[in-house]
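[SOLVED] Predicted holo structure with flavin-adenine dinucleotide

Edit: marking solved, answer below. Original request kept for reference. I posted the sequence and ligand SMILES and asked for the 3D complex as structure tokens.
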Amino acid sequence: MKIAILGGGAAGFYTAIHCKLFNPEAEVTIIEKSQKLLSKVKVSGGGRCNVTNVESDPLKLSKHYPRGERLLSKAFREHGSKETREFFESRGVDLVVQEDGCIFPKSQSSQTIIDCFLNECKRLNVRINTGLNINGMKQNTDHSWCLSSKEEQLDFDKVIVCIGGLPKWEHMQWLQDLGQPMITPCPSLFTFNMPNESIRELMGTVAPQVLTRIPGLKYHGHGPLLITHWGMSGPAILMLSAKGARDLFDKNYRFICNVSWLGITNEDEIKNKILALQKELFKRKIGGASFYGLSTRLWRYLIEKSGVDVEKTWEQLSNKDLNRLVVILTQDAYQVEGKTTFKEEFVTAGGVDLQHINFKTMESKTLPNLFFAGEVLDIDGITGGFNFQAAWTTGWLAARGAAVNFSPNV
Ligand SMILES: Cc1cc2nc3c(=O)[nH]c(=O)nc-3n(C[C@H](O)[C@H](O)[C@H](O)COP(=O)(O)OP(=O)(O)OC[C@H]3O[C@@H](n4cnc5c(N)ncnc54)[C@H](O)[C@@H]3O)c2cc1C
């Protein structure tokens, strides 16, 4: 059996290796259009490669995917983060779990992961063909595939497409032309630009536990928020950008972002917190110290923005002042005008429509012997090792689907 893997990235390598593990007799070839293999793995996680996450419960793990959650929750039962760790550790890659649950190679270098893949391909005799640009693909009458480049035509029994994501239609349109239903790609995981908001002057400031929302949309982000030179970043923003990727694309990245600065939206709860401090710091200035984890600088900014005099003492706080502080702490609002791609990790939402994929085998329901894995699928996760995990899991399923004569009903 001859299997072609299109794309020499994370999903391509994991899939190729598992094709050989499932079926050592299979002839497996990775075809990479550029001269570079595993280039995203190299730069991932700031050069450290956040390979997966400590969360191993399939249902909980799947909650980190704005697109693909339902299907992944089943797939993770077969091959999830536990199996990924076993794969790397059994090949001599020591892993460490960070406090936030992210898992990295102990070497703190993505090269360890690259070396592991290259060594394993060598050991298993996976062929690697770089700089080969496939510009045509056609199904033969026996349902095998003929791939053509400028120079040659290559026949394969099965093709696994692992070309990754790019938020550009041209990157994937050829799949649609082939007859594979696709969802328009758009970026996910980006930071918010706020060119007209003075909060940017506080760049470098972190609020440890906020809640972010967009009026009219049902989801929210939570966690730390970082104020940047451009606007806002940090997990609470990235999570919101991932969940809202498609809606925010439709809004042309112009919208209001609401921030609840203590992660609390309940006004009475915030009021009680303010009253408790008022009792304690009666004679002190309200802007004189930090406020429940918010830095003094940020707290003073918020007091001023609410229209309350920062020089007032807590005992001088009127009911009107109290209400203004409650509003700013629970539903502060910022005008977003544009986005910046997050430098650490950005991914594509959209791609191969999951409805037209057999999720047991990753085979196309419309084009037999054509399989998919990785970011080319309409699957994406938030930051934390979840995007690689989706590539590993879908790669493992595609390998089993293609290399074993696997019947999903057995
Ligand atoms: C800067 C950055 C940092 C990241 N860090 C992390 C992280 O730490 N943890 C995490 O979980 N996720 C991270 N991600 C996301 C993660 O890198 C991707 O989700 C993952 O690489 C997807 O794997 P893939 O194999 O599907 O695609 P890719 O890794 O993009 O590989 C696709 C490959 O296919 C090739 N290709 C494209 N078209 C063709 C074609 N027609 N024929 C042949 N080859 C083709 C490309 O050249 C490429 O080599 C990061 C992303 C970025 C951009």
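OP edit: The pocket of flavin-adenine dinucleotide is lined by residues 6-12, 31-34, 39-40, 43-45, 49-50, 134, 162-164, 344-347, 374-376, 385-388, 391 (CB under 6 Å). Thanks to everyone who chimed in.
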